[in-house]
Amino acid sequence: MKPATSNHTLIGPFSQIVTMAELPEAGPIADEALEVLENAGVLVHEGRIVLVESYDKLLKIAEEKQYSLQKIEEPMVLMPGLIDSHTHICFAGSRANDYAMRVAGKSYLEIARNGGGILDSVRKTREATVVELVDLLKKRCDRHLSEGVTTCEVKSGYGLTTDDELKMLEAIQLVNKHHAIDLIPTCLAAHMRPPEHTDSRAYLEEVVSVLLPQIKEQGLASRVDIFIEDTAFNEEESLEYLLAAKEMGFEITVHADQFSTGGSRIAAEAGAVSADHLEASGDEEIALLKASGVVATVLPGASLGLGMHYAPARKMLDGGLCLAIATDWNPGSAPMGDLLLQAALLGAAEKLTTAETLAAITARAAKALHLTDRGSVQKGQLADLIAFPTANYKEILYQQGKLKPTKVWKQGKEV
Ligand code: NIG
Ligand code: FE
Asked: Is 2 a member of any domain?
């Protein structure tokens, strides 16, 4: 046989392909809406999906045209690569001591007020060099990719000076250049008022006039986030900040309603792409997010890390919201960082359908990042794919995150 003359590759056969295609943009999803193709394959060309079809049909085409074959020899289920739309994985140091204090009864906010919490990670991240941050971030990306996360948002926010925020974003940019995972950077200089500043409004003004222009100029991020909470920034100053960032062309996302409400109203008013956390949200907040088309991103890893209740995901779906689930992987409130496990646990506790949970970490997570080229297995999408060693896709959530993908492709290349 002649060698392949094209770089088209047929991957398969898969026992099942769960395409996550053609799902409703928001609101509940019945499991019947999931498209599950049996004995199917994927034809990939230049990093994108060209065809998703019955394997026999694709094999005929591939043999005729002498395409390359990547044979799958065991029963496997194929899905789109997972998307983690909210993380803080660029950091130095560990907050294991905070965690021990928390489980022994001290609250997250109490620890923060006493110099622990976010500012402890700020101190350690400021001390780290770009090279050290790159190394730490790269290791976390290796783990995420091996667990099926092919796109991952990463926030700054442990620098809180112009130079240290730029240093974090540079580290994210460097890892993104050299790692197979796609990183989506977000500026979270508005994570907390830094200790050097006494006036949070003046600090935010400085971020707008000094830091954001440099981020723009250097192309380091196109998204801006803020933590709206009593211990961080208040609603009024947050809205001003977000509108100024929006005016500069940044997309907006918000840490909202984690402990108290208010943030989701600002997210809706500022026209944010997503509002994240939402543990404290109720009917009123859900209605506001719905009216403004804001994606609701819930973070079960923060609930698990803080030993608190989950965000009301079921209510959010029934209220018509587009629900995404992300890890919030960070050194403080969410040290675990296992997206599939956390989604499975939240789904079980909140009574989400399999379709709703899987959509929240694929197709709907893509919406939370305003990405249209990924999140489903269909023609034209990036060939970001993961395969689980099972013949039945229901095993994936049933095993609550312990069944991991054993094959991961980024843009058609197995990694
Ligand atoms: O999303 N809520 C604020 N920020 C992070 C926690 C960061 C930290 O504790 O270091 C969060 O949970
Ligand atoms: Fe967060």
From this structure: no
DSSP codes, 332-393: SS-----HHHHHHHHHHHHT--HHHHHHHTTHHHHHHTT--S-SS-STTSB--EEEES-S-T
* Ligand 2 centroid to residue 363 C-alpha, Å: 20
Q: Tell me the CATH number at 392.
A: 2.30.40.10
Q: List beta partners, residue 225.
A: 253
Instruction: Specify whether 87 is located in the same domain as 75.
Output: no
Closest ligand 1 atom to the C-alpha of 91?
Answer: 10
Q: Which residues contact 105 (CB under 8 A, 6 or more apart)?
A: none
- Model pLDDT for residues 23-37, shown as the tens digit of each residue: 999 999 999 999 999
Whole-prediction pTM: 0.97
Which of 381, 224, 244, 364 has the alpha carbon at shortest distance from 294? Answer: 364
What CATH number does the domain containing 94 carry?
3.20.20.140
Please, are residues 190 and 159 in contact by the beta-carbon 8 Å criterion? no
- Give ligand 1 pocket residues (Cβ under 6 A): 88, 117-118, 121, 227, 255, 258, 302, 328, 330-334
Residue 33: which H helix or E strand, with range?
Answer: none
Whether ipTM exceeds 0.90: yes
Alpha-carbon distances, residue 201 vs 146, 179, 213, 240, 315 (angstroms): 41, 37, 18, 9, 35
Q: How far does the centroid of ligand 2 lie from the alpha carbon of residue 265, in Å?
A: 18
What amino acid is encoded at 315 in this protein?
K
